[in-house]
Amino acid sequence: MDQPTDKKQQILCIGSVLWDVVGRATIAMRAGSDVPGRIERIPGGVALNIAMALGRFGLNPSALTAIGRDPEGEELMAACGRLGVSTEHAYRSDDLPTDQYMAIEGANGLIAAIADAHSLEAAGPRILTPLIEGPLGTREAPFDGLIALDGNLTHALLEEIATDAAFARADLRVAPASPGKAERLAPFLRHSRAVLYVNLEEAGLLCQRTFETSAEAAEALVARGAKRALVTNGAKPCSDGTADGVITACPPEVLVTRITGAGDTFMAAHMAAELSGMDREAALERALHAAAIYVSGELPA
Length: 301
Prior knowledge:
The protein is an alpha/beta fold. It has helices at 46-56, 71-82, 118-123, 129-132, 155-163, 200-207, 214-223, 262-275, 280-296; strands spanning 10-14, 18-24, 38-44, 60-64, 66-68, 91-93, 100-106, 109-116, 146-150, 171-175, 194-199, 228-233, 236-242, 245-249. 30% of the residues lie in helices and 26% in strands.
């Protein structure tokens, strides 16, 4: 089949596109805290956060996801358009409500979060139809561009993606939606084209052990079969591991004003840096710099 002429510049972001409801306080919090702060609702979800960041780097992101036809879904579709994220190929459901995420952040970090991605999970393989039956690709003529994949999909669907011929030529960049969903990425540990983006806790869950450093975690993921693994550790050094070895870099020191979306920004910045031709060291530095700017609040959410 004929592919769009701009397909190689298009990046597909597969996973959650939803509303983030985030409460932030400027003081440290603990379980049971009741403090003043700010609450905002913004477009979010791992796939959309990555897509929005890619758009800021001048790329052409398109989301494959599930969005309801409820008022929240219509509003979210319009917001995606304003943000430069294509939802042309999103699965729209009359029966499934638009998903949402709720988080509480204090000066001491993320206090608690709940992700309601039940509609995305219920939609299942229907969100992949444009990649399997066209217009983005088929099993006979697979999409051969860059795909950012998030762990909000079910374990069964992620396993299917890991082996489906429709993804055989794609450059797969994979991230868990949260530590609670990290083990869903196990099918990609031995995938020949997948790059994993995880934090230290998620790496530990995938390897079923505890790590002290990102370098140790990246090396262990590669030893377990990962083609490549990038491991972040908050303000501590971040590592990029491959069969050729592990490289490590330190994030810039900044005042942290937000956490939700930082890992997605890191992943998008790293993808954009490599697309521009940067080597491993430069791409890692660029991604850490972009994530630092994001958590400092210098970039809009």
